[in-house]
Batch of 2 targets.
Target 1
Amino acid sequence: MNFARGIFAMALACTSASFADVVFSADFENRAAGQYTNKMAQEDFPKKAGVSSWYAMEQNGGQNAKIVQDDEEHGMVLQLKYPKGCVGPNDEGERPACAGQVKQPLDVSAEEMWVAYDIQFEPGFEFVKGGKLPGLCGGKCYTGGNRPSVGDGWSARIMWRAEGAVVQYLYFVDQGSTYGDDAKWNLGETAEQKHFVPGTWHHVVTRVVMNSVTTEGKGDKNGIVQSWFDGELSLDLDTLRLRDFQDQKIDEFYLSTFHGGNDDTWAPTNDVFVRYDNFVVSTDSIPVASAKPGVSDEGSTAIKPALSNNRDGSRVGDYVGKRSAKRPGETPKYFKNEKDFNAKGQQQ
């Protein structure tokens, strides 16, 4: 563990009295190199008692999930394997399962929640047509082509697309596509489209705020999903109807990652790997940059990362404490569905 990592840990410890906002975190530093089992996942991603969950880290004969030693900054990390020919999260006949899954009901449910993690696609990774990455969901946590007809569930995961393009992959009551809608990480076509670069560690953060419900059974279109890529605000939606009922909250973390899609045209032609580290879910703002953190403001539970610039030169704040300015009620022009990527037949 290097100096920067140590400072970050101390900063978190110093704010721990008021950092009850952190729902869970996992950095794998307590793990030795070797196979990562379902039992380990249950310990690192603890679920709410009495609620259904699943842990699938022993797919493909236990070959898909390992703890490995990374560089000094990241230490021990979770490495997931996407075997040659894999599509989807399950072993099916001769076709192996990709990577692994954790569906984790959280100990708390909230109107607003943040999720962050570090991710590195290893050199040689084959993006092919796309694949799923972890994110938040709530209610019935719709995925896999199960489109909500009423606002009783939603999901807001991340996807990689061809050549590593990053999008938010959204299931919600007003979605335009059967298999979820894509929202490109390009800040409404005012910034460069973000891409994952193999061999490079990236830090991704997503903030979700539930829409209001003025009339029970018909939610308002003011739900928020914002995402940052390496400290830069890259997605800013605030017209979403995620729920129709006030009791629907943000209540699950879904680590679901695989190539697909649902046919062999999505599959990698070689074994490829992705590394994950520093998962955090919180009900309050968390760092949007993974650079060396500074000292938090007095009385604040947020650790302030360095500022970054938008392409137009405007500044991105350290963290978002207030919702963004309201845009007109129509869906933003950059809210795209999967057709923009010629992607059909999504799975999960």
Target 2
Amino acid sequence: MTNNNFVEPTDYEEKQDLYDPEDCDLIVLDLNNEEKNDKYTYLKRNDYKEYSGNSFVWESSSKNDFTFLTLFYDGDEKYIVIFPYVGNLILLRKSDNGSWINLKTCVNFNKLKMFDRRGHYVVAKFIHYELQKFNLKMVFSCFCEVVIYEGNLIYKHCDRPLNGYPYSLSFNLLHNIISIHLMDESIITYQNVKKELPDLKYSPLKQNDNFYYTSHYTPNNEMIDYKIQKTIKKIQLEGFKYRDICLFDINFHDRSVDIESEHAIIDGNLIMSTDKYVTFSSLGHRGFDARKGFYFSKMINRSLIRGYIDYPPYVRTQVGTRRSYNLLPENRDLEYKPRSNPDYLSCMKPDITKFKFYGNDDIEIKSDDTEVCYDDLFYVIKFKTELHRVVYDGKEYWNYNNNKNNGFPIKIYFTDYNNDMNVCFNDGKIEKVKIKVLYIKMFKTDEFGNRVMITDKEYKVSKIERDKRLYKLNEGVKCTEIWHYDGEFVWKHKEGDPYPISIVYYYYFRSISIRFESYFFVSVRGIGNLTWGSLIFPIPKHVKLYKLDKIGNKLELNYKDYDFDCNYFGSFIYDLKKNVECVELKFHGETLWKHEQSQPYPHSFDYSVFGASITVYCKTLNVNIDRNNGIWDTEIVVNKPYLMSN
């Protein structure tokens, strides 16, 4: 008998499914024997203790009473919880005279239904159990979206998204009390489910009632694949509609297309972005992302790396191709000094339609007064008239009046390997002007109530890793809107809500993580889809990092010691700042990791809320800490040299 230990059949963990008792083998569980065999698994969480004697503690009266899971608690009082295939849980308590008393419970797990955010049943693989006397706790390692007990809806994430998903579901087996513990450490308690809740008669929420259904995100209810159709039918059998699930994962790889979207033809030789798609250009690869309201129907002057643009049945909003190295004869004299750029974000090319060229008297130069030629390496604009000024995206980048010594430019050109605008003059001189491309745009409201864009002087941007940018807003700057690729609305401030502290843009997943004082708002477009979906994650209070001060006292790290981010999958990333030496990590008060003198100090931590894992990243090694069935296991992985160099 052990503290907080349990025994389960081997098939239960491997297949997360229960067989009919008629088809099962009979197992007699000996509490004096902790050895594993091929029929059940014994998991020891704390110190092992044995009970003497050979008397029966409990015996099933029929096959329906057979247990598929048994939990033990050994403290000042001793309890056993038995999970039968049919009926209420069985709670046994050891009396003072050594006999075991059967305490009747009202909890029946066959009447408990839990769904994840895909609408699938939460299975045993994503739950572990803990027993504290007569209090039974189910700890989740997944996103539990909806909980139904005895036909009553006792929890729905959409009702309280700011509190986060459930961390655990607890049952007081003696007093029939149910408690739902949420990520922000708030608790929902039901003293008596039958008396407190009506029968489940739920109708779909209206769009305006749902926290996630903002003006930028309207789910397409008509376009759902057959797997989701099965899920919807299953959930409807429980008495409510699929829109009670806040966000299906279909939004992450949604290939449906708005019937009002226009098709766009990709020119494989065009290195610049356009008003229909965004171009990413590197030395070996060319990528294209469709802008909002467009999809790709054809590519000219090139072939795809893989697949075809074929509609229907598939709609392409992201494609890639290899370079052709096609070079026009008239461009052979242009300066070309390519360099490798592993950061894909900096390969995003300026939108050629956002350039404005002005001549004498500040009159915009028309297309008839220019000559455009382009190939796989260059985009060239030759001018037939005097060029006085160049404006990109509303900002002036070049003005003749600033330096008249070189005369008027004869042409400008761009290369495929950077975003320099090369201004060329008659005497052969070239003036290089860096064009700034914005992946996201942030707006605020000025003192007159006008909507104005936040300038780069009002935030600090840093490259925290490849294809990821961190924007830290200056104190007092109140961001009210965030847009992606100009035309894709991501987030808007609501009156009374807090303002963002920082924003992280991650190109690979097309995700934007907005950090507030107590939570993260994470919005993602995903790979190849057309809609933005959003989730909220409260900042965990139970993860503590520590350092030592000058005299050896332990101090908890704060936001000044690390950069903080959260992704769409519920992983919190702590990137330690230079010279910050973390020596200890605690989780719910338990020390999971301590720095050893023989090891390097970590540079970052990754805590996965529902993956039940923590990774400590060091330069030469990683420490993987995983929770399996409530037991924390630690593994040290030495980094390979080629990984250490990146």
